[in-house]
Amino acid sequence: MISFLKIHEWLNKEKKLGSLEPEYVVLATASKEGIPSTRVVHIREINEKGILFFTQQETKKVIDLSENPYASMTLWLPMQQREVVLDGCAEKLTIDEKKRYWESMSRERQLRFMVNSLKIRKTKISLDDLNKEYDYFLNKFRGEEIPMSDFYSGFCFVPKTMYFYTLASNGFSEIEFCP
To answer: What is the mean pLDDT of residues 89-97?
Structure first.
């Protein structure tokens, strides 16, 4: 079983060095045809099973991971000149797991998620329209719990391998492999 202790240590050190939000990774996926795609996602949690992240249901990453669950993540920690490269599979979270994370989000993040889901479904939407939609949802759910969006999707990325790199000033990098 892979231990995430070193990742936690490196993330904590990055925060101590002044990084405000080091919990972003580059996620690389491939379509069923093998066409690669990358984007940045926010790590929501690292637990004993893997790395959790959330996204909109109809995005390319969700389509890619539904067709081909194999993926790679790169965590770059610039203050330390370190990176972690993880290769493995992404597993969709259950409705109950998604609901638990949805309920832990602030109201503002929930509202913004709902508005962003509109942006993905429409080809063109202006910033003014997004602000109007935000106000609409704000008023619609005033004083009420915001129901989980149908477009809220979550994954647990389960790495099979991890590579820990520390870049050195002499041009040689330290590499540690964790199978």
So the answer is: 96
